[in-house]
Amino acid sequence: MEAFALIDSHTIGALRTLTIGPEHKSLPPQAWGRSIEDFVADSPPMGLFQTPLLTLDSSRIDHNISVMATWATEAGVKLAPHGKTTMAPALWKRQLNSGSWAITLATIWQVQLARSFGVERIMLANALVDPVGLQWLAIELADHPEFEFYCWADGPGTIEAMNKALDDAGATRKVNVIVELGGEHGRTGARTTVAARAVADAITASSHLALAGVGGYEGALSHDRSEPGLTAVAGYLDSVADFHRELDSAGLYGDHAVVTAGGSAYQDLVVDRLASLADEDGSRGVATSVVLRSGAYIIHDDGFYSQISPMIPSRSEHPLEAAMHGWARVVSRPESGLALLDAGKRDLPYDEGLPIPQSVEGEITALNDQHSFLRFPPSDSTAPIGTVVRLGLSHPCTAFDKWRLIPVIDDAGSEDPRVVDLIHTFF
After folding, report:
1. What angle do CA 83, 89, 93 make, to 5 degrees?
2. Other CB atoms closer than 10 Å to residue 38's CB: what's the count?
3. C-alpha distances in angstroms, 225 versus 267, 295, 332?
4. In 19-120, where do the E strands start and end?
5. Which helix (H) or strand (E) is 211 found in, with range?
6. What predicted TM-score, i.e. pTM, was given to this entire model?
7. Dist. CA 93–CA 88, nearest whole Å
8. Of 305, 302, 277, 306, nearest to 290 (Cα)?
9. Do the beta carbons of residue 109 and residue 84 sit within 8 Å?
10. Closest CA to 248 of 291, 212, 202
């Protein structure tokens, strides 16, 4: 299926007819009552907007999509970017149009949302045992033969729950299930290949399920690029490869298998350890696709991923670029060396590092619900009340969920960037 057919452009385009109102945080009152399309037609200056604000950089998003698409193609793997990062169908469209094979999601509700925008190939990187969700899936698969769906399972209880719910729903199409292999002290996933093999056998014995591959999430096994961390990730990925070979040798697959891994921290190791399994024509066994599920790359950051990603200037000739920034205004100077900004935990991510001031000297040392504590030397007289501070941010996954409409600007480095679009999120 061609990329352009994987999502409904008309439905996404209809988002631009949305009427802006005061429920859309920090958009100017001048925009209320107008459609997105009408409001951004003249590229209003960012200075028209209120603070706090989160913005995206359009050219950097395009750059990151292109870099990752080229990198994956050259590595011989497919991309199924994790859509939970942005929950923004307009951005999913840009990724799919660049050649991404599918969109990955984390919950059945997210899958349902994606289906409402016509996404036709989805990987649910999670187990699905919710009977209501499985009933919906059974109907959706029956009504839409073009819809291609994958989910995960890591234990016999998952298979039992799926079989019962699908049987109760009168399912007519089999559900593709990928066996999730985990690691010690990791997150979900069968902890041994023996346990994983039992899951695979249960899938093949089911009248409602089809064994579709093997995969998991290596990012749960390390949080840095230390030698022990990289060794743990590499060893885990080797176990995924070995388990796929075991299932292939046993003839348990149908006519196609998926091997999938990859967050946005160790995609280089995924390629190093798994890319050789790709065998699209099945010349060495079952036809196999290696699928990378990185999600944060489209936005990248100035914090966690700027340090750990393999696609940064010190590790790559074609690095990713931070495509999101926070903007906050100094509202109080209650004591020497301290400024309070009007952005806090309700506005900016903080779970993988605090915001980083980029337009003034200083350090953000804490966030309250609606304030940031900006500290600098007592003798420093910068950042008087009213100053707007540009902030580098860490972890896009917990930035987008705080905003319904996110302005897209043409250049975060200019004195007063122009807003060229508004991205609608669904959280």
Report:
1. 95
2. 14
3. 12, 19, 39
4. 53-57, 78-79, 103-105
5. strand 209-215
6. 0.96
7. 9
8. 277
9. no
10. 212
Q: Each residue of 187-211: pLDDT tens digit? A: 999 999 999 999 999 999 999 999 9
DSSP for 287-335 reads EEEEEE---GGGT--SSHHHHH-SSSTTT-SS-----EEEEEEEEEEEE
Question: Hey, how many other C-beta atoms are within 10 angstroms of the C-beta on 135?
Answer: 16
Give residue 132's identity as a one-letter amino acid code: V
The three-class DSSP label of residue 140 is: helix
State which H helix or E strand residue 267 sits in: helix 267-274
Dist CA 253 CA 45 (whole Å): 55
pLDDT class of 286 with cuts at 50, 70, 90 = very high
pLDDT per residue as tens digits for the range 3-56? 446 999 999 999 999 999 999 999 999 999 999 999 999 999 999 999 999 999
Question: What per-residue confidence (pLDDT) applies to 4?
Answer: 45
CB 259 within 8 A of CB 47: no
Would you list the DSSP string of 14-43? HGGGPBP-TTSTT--GGGTTSBHHHHHTT-
Helices and strands, number each (H, E), in the chain: 11, 17
Confidence band (pLDDT; 50, 70, 90) for 419? Answer: very high
Q: What is the sign of the dihedral through the CA atoms of 30, 34, 39 and 41?
A: negative
* 8-state DSSP, 61: H
CA distance 171 to 308: 43
pLDDT tens profile 42-75: 999 999 999 999 999 999 999 999 999 999 999 9
Q: Which two tokens stand for residue 307?
A: 């340090």
Distances (CA, A) of 206 to 134, 161, 162, 167, 244: 15, 12, 10, 11, 20
The helix or strand, by DSSP H or E, that contains position 270, with its residue range, turns out to be helix 267-274
